[in-house]
Amino acid sequence: MTQMTIPVAQMTMSMAQMAIQTVHNGHFCGTNDHFYGTNATTPYAAAVGDFNQDNHTDVVVTNCGSWNVVVFLRYGNGPLASGMFFATSACPVAALIGDFNQDNRFDIAVANKNSNNIGILLDPGNASFASQNIFSVDSTPFTIATGDFNQDGRFDLVTANSGSNSVSVLLGYGNGSFATQMSMAIGASPYSVVVSDFNHDNLLDLAVTTTSASSVNVFLGQGNGSFIMHSTTSTNIDPYVSAVADFNGDNLLDIVIPHYTTTAVSVFCDLGNATFGHLLSLSGASAPGIVAVGDFNQDNRTDIAVINYSSSTL
């Protein structure tokens, strides 16, 4: 029997809180709350990784209001240790984990929404992260994703920039630094970007949801770090932070999208050529903002977890 954990950042102004939901055989087994003081405000996003290489999952949370991230290490099967704080630029709203300098340690990348840059925090060892290195992107980066876009074996980065209606691609050098952004114009208010090979050519593509235009846009990767616009699919209103998985068992990657101002979550299936059609809508959410996918009950089918902003539930 396997357990999974899903970190949830609670957006409270006076005292930061992170909730850990444990999934055991398909059942969400309650919440362990972690309060970490008034020096961290407006927690926004979370990511997981083994930062200190002890084979236990650790957590990093971005704090938009206090301009920092907090890292929680887990030792053994016990609770998370006290948080360690590391400074960022203005309002980090997204985080991901990757080995950006190829030293076999997990580093942290954050999207700093109000300063229009990406912050890279390299881990020199034992989760003692160095001061961030910043790399400029367009206005208001809201989500960040990673992949090897130019097939050189190094992590590259992409952000969806809601303030400039664009996507920024930054190619990695493999030493923790990145090339100047390549900017691509896109529809109004892109809020989410996910990376996958949608047309099965062994090159990574992008799927970008645009909130004001209510669409998901697919860009096909060319293998050299550039992308070509391929398809646009209309969605329900206010699509937010999406995820990809094969929901109908056809070995094609589908997209699940929460609709922030509604009670709905939609699944769009890949029609076989990196274009998407509406498969089904799921109701009962409450201002759904972020989705996560996984096999939570071990039946070899992909399940969906939804974070509901207005009700503070999962």
Overview in brief:
By secondary structure, this protein is mainly beta.
Description:
The protein starts with a strand and ends in a 6-residue tail after the last strand. The protein has strands spanning 3-10, 17-24, 27-35, 43-49, 58-63, 68-72, 84-87, 92-98, 107-112, 117-121, 133-136, 141-147, 156-161, 166-170, 182-185, 190-196, 205-210, 215-221, 227-234, 243-245, 254-258, 265-270, 276-282, 288-294, 303-308. It folds into two domains: 1-135, no CATH class; 137-314, Methylamine Dehydrogenase, Chain H, CATH 2.130.10.10. Helix content is 0%, strand content 49%. The chain is mostly beta strands and 314 residues long. The protein is globular and about 45 Å long. The protein has a four-stranded antiparallel beta sheet, with no helix packed on it. Strand 18 (215-221) and strand 19 form a beta hairpin. This is VCBS repeat-containing protein. It comes from Rotaria socialis.
